[in-house]
């Protein structure tokens, strides 16, 4: 079975991120051959990256922090990812950057898609993330879902968030289909090496 992990890239109180994360997870669960997991960064309170050697360094000692060990195991067990991210000041949250930086080889040769939101639909956070995930050896798929500010405001005004998200069901379906194509292709290639 193919495992796709949806990463909730915000840990702020009363955050919006959980709603699009659960929404995209439901789209993934429509596929019976997909084991969908939600990896909420709030459940992985990692310290700021402070190891003397980067994760990419050959011969680096194993991690000793239990949360980092759990996080790394989850990434290693996943075949593909959807990162749900807000946009903060033209970028993505530091907690997400930290989570990406703690891991290296476990990201490699795996696809990633993005669901973003913010003042300009999270577009600028996705632009930055595409550069970072490329450096980690991931395949960033072209299609993403960028949610408008109205969805975020519906959350904070106790409005109908489900109705706002439903407007993007077709985009979500297309993105998930692309992600699964890339996941299967890259998984098959990884299994051959």
UniProtKB/TrEMBL annotation:
<dbReference type="GO" id="GO:0005829">
    <property type="term" value="C:cytosol"/>
</dbReference>
<dbReference type="GO" id="GO:0016491">
    <property type="term" value="F:oxidoreductase activity"/>
</dbReference>
<dbReference type="Pfam" id="PF03358">
    <property type="entry name" value="FMN_red"/>
</dbReference>
<feature type="domain" description="NADPH-dependent FMN reductase-like">
    <location>
        <begin position="3"/>
        <end position="145"/>
    </location>
</feature>
<protein>
    <recommendedName>
        <fullName>NADPH-dependent FMN reductase-like domain-containing protein</fullName>
    </recommendedName>
</protein>
<dbReference type="InterPro" id="IPR029039">
    <property type="entry name" value="Flavoprotein-like_sf"/>
</dbReference>
<dbReference type="GO" id="GO:0010181">
    <property type="term" value="F:FMN binding"/>
</dbReference>
<dbReference type="InterPro" id="IPR050712">
    <property type="entry name" value="NAD(P)H-dep_reductase"/>
</dbReference>
<dbReference type="InterPro" id="IPR005025">
    <property type="entry name" value="FMN_Rdtase-like_dom"/>
</dbReference>
